[in-house]
Every structure is written in C-alpha cells, then in structure tokens.
Amino acid sequence: INAEYGDHPKGFEILPSRCEATSIKVLLEKHGLEYAVETKSNVEYISTNGQFPVLIFNEKDIVCGFSELVKYLHKSGYTLSEKLNQMEKCDMDIYTALIKRLEAIELYTSWLIEDNYCHVTLPAIPVTLPASLFHPTFI
Asked: For the chain, what is the radius of gyration of the CA atoms?
C-alpha cells in the first residue's frame, strides 16, 4: 500500500487532531507501510468526512481520520489485534472508549471554558478555514 499523507491545514493545532495524526503515523509505521507526508493547501477540501489527516492510497482511495484508516487497513488484511486474546481485546476496547471520553473532555475545556477558549483555542484556529472543520458538533 502506498499512502500519501495529507497533513492538517497550516495552523490547525487542536490537540485531538494532533493526537490522531500521530496515531496514524504510528499505525502506518507499525505495519511497515511507507507513506509520504505532504502539507497541502487544500487538504480541508479533500477530506470526505471533515476528519484529518487525509490519506490517499494508491492515488485513488481517500481515507480520512484514524477510525477510517483502521477500517481500511483491516479490509486490506492488516490488523494489530490478531495475536490478542479475548481479554486483551476487551482491554483495548476499554482504553479506546476512555480516549474518546477524554477527547470529549478536552473539546469541552477548549471550547466552553472562556479563559481557555480566548487564550488557547482561538489563537490556534486559522481564520481562513471554514468553521465546520474544527468546531465541535456537540456545541
């Protein structure tokens, strides 16, 4: 699998997005898959689901975000859980749920606590991008 890795738009520095980008890089490297990182000026318009980063496989398949990458790799025969027993798989599900919960907490503190929003979140958001790319949908 050849992957072209379209990183976040310049200035898009919200923590959950950065964590997801790092997780994707680790997952690709763990499977020994080569990828090239390209910062594209229009990556926000390439994303099919509003998630980042955008990966383009074999110049045709577009995959956006970590969960979609895991699904794509599983369909392609790559998995990290093949050697795990049932208890380890349950632990993995619990940790994943915890991470999702922590992400919701981070989004809440970034967007709804005024001091954090004014001094951290707002300066990190590029004004030129559509708000739907980085504004949490639960607000």
From this structure: 16
User: What pLDDT tens digit does each residue of the chain (139 aa) get?
Assistant: 445 455 555 555 556 666 777 788 888 888 888 887 776 667 767 778 877 778 888 778 888 888 888 888 889 888 878 888 999 988 888 988 888 888 788 888 888 899 988 888 777 776 666 666 566 554 4
Contact yes or no for 76/1 (Cβ under 8 A): yes
Phi and psi, residue 6, nearest 5°: -90, 110
Alpha helices in the chain (DSSP H): 15-30, 43-46, 66-75, 86-112, 114-116, 122-124
- The DSSP code for 53 is S
**Pair 61, 54: CB distance under 8 Å:** no
Spatial neighbors of 124 by CB under 8 A, at least 6 apart, are: 11, 12, 13, 14
Paired sense of beta strands 54-57 and 3-6, if any: antiparallel
